[in-house]
Design brief:
Blueprint (H helix, E strand, L loop, with lengths): L1 H13 L5 H10 L7 H22 L8 H9 L2 H11 L11 H13 L4 H9 L27 H14 L1
Helix pairs in contact: 3-7, 4-6
Length: 167
């Protein structure tokens, strides 16, 4: 029974120009339940960037400033340098000042991608905070606490109301 089950796959692999080592590596890498700190960090990268930029856009000191200016200011900060080094440590990449314009372009492109619309809308409603159980598609559905990730009760109530209206 086991051999018959895999006959189609084996036949396809024998008749294709696939590198057996690469196929095996791909299959091993997609094993369910195996998450490394690298995969977790990379999968949360865009969400973290969108949340941070949203918070910075809503900061009164940035009122009237362009998105690119806000991003550039963040990219030049120690906060971004630490964030970048943490996220990219498994890739052996480190923050370099001479690449500031590259980082600005990458983050600007990430912000503008249509597939990030969900996070832009979500963090706009929550003022840049992640509130568990409110449609972020992150975490579990738990009762919202008064103080969660720095958001105050007023922000949480307002966000929940906005998010319920969008759904």
């Amino acid at each position: 029974m086991g051999k018959e089950k895999w006959d189609k796959v084996i036949e396809y692999l024998k008749n294709s120009n696939r590198d057996p080592d690469k196929v095996l590596k791909l299959l091993k890498g997609s094993d369910k339940g195996i998450e490394t700190s690298h995969t977790v960090a990379r999968s949360s990268y865009s969400m973290n960037v969108i949340a941070t930029i949203t918070q910075k856009k809503l900061d009164p000191k940035n009122k009237g400033k362009t998105l690119t200016h806000i991003i550039r200011t963040w990219v030049k900060s120690k906060d971004f340098q630490d964030f970048y080094n943490l996220i990219r440590s498994n890739e052996k990449l480190v923050y370099k000042k001479e690449k500031i314009e590259t980082y600005v372009k990458q983050i600007n492109d990430l912000w503008s991608k249509p597939n990030q619309q969900h996070f832009r809308n979500y963090f706009e409603a929550t003022k840049g905070y992640l509130i568990m159980g409110t449609g972020s598609k992150v975490g579990t559905k738990r009762k919202i606490k008064n103080s969660l990730y720095g958001a105050n009760k007023k922000t949480i109530k307002s966000a929940v109301k906005k998010l319920k209206n969008k759904n």
